[in-house]
Amino acid sequence: MQKEIAFIETVMKSFSPAMLETETVTRWLVGQVHPGGPVCPVCGESVTGEAGLRNFYALKRVQCKKCNNHSNAAAGTVLHGLKFDIRFVFLMALLIGAGMSYQKIGEILKLQPRTVQIWSEKFAQIGQKG
Ligand SMILES: [Zn+2]
């Protein structure tokens, strides 16, 4: 059931100590929620250029070269409006994949068990769009 969620399997396979670093895990998660590659969420134009790509994968503001809208890579994804440390997204998936209960994960990460459960449902959506 939960172990059949593709994103959780990917997290289990991708874990390394570097994933505990905010910069590394942010870049990795942005790649996961944008399986079609880096594009403007407004018009779909590809994000290009060294600075644009660096900002895109760091969840910083990127200005689209085509439509001029400012946005960041969280727009329209499960990462939009994140209210806690982004590393927790990875850790929740890792611990769910390891079979830990929502209650126990909530205790470790100081989150409500219900929040962990909601994220387990979000994980099922990652990679299904685009
Ligand atoms: Zn655009």
Q: If you had to describe this structure to a student in words, what would you say it looks like?
A:
With 130 residues, the protein is mainly alpha-helical. Helices cover 45% and strands 3% of the residues. It is built from six helices and two strands. Strand 1 and strand 2 (70-71) form a beta hairpin. Helix 4 (87-97) packs across helix 6 (113-123). The two termini are 24 Å apart. The model has no long low-confidence stretch (mean pLDDT 93).
Question: How is the largest sheet built, in terms of strand order?
Answer: 1-2
Percent strand: under 5%
Average pLDDT, all residues: 93
Domain unit count: 1
Report on the biggest sheet.
Answer: 2 strands, antiparallel
| Net shape | elongated
Number of strands: 2
- What is the string of helix and strand elements? HHHEEHHH
Q: How many separate helices?
A: 6
Q: How far is it from the N-terminal to the C-terminal residue, by CA?
A: 24 Å
Q: Tell me the Rg in angstroms.
A: 15 Å
Task: Quickly give the structural class.
Answer: mainly alpha
What small molecules are bound in this structure? zinc ion
Proportion of residues in helical segments: 40-55%
Low-confidence stretches: none
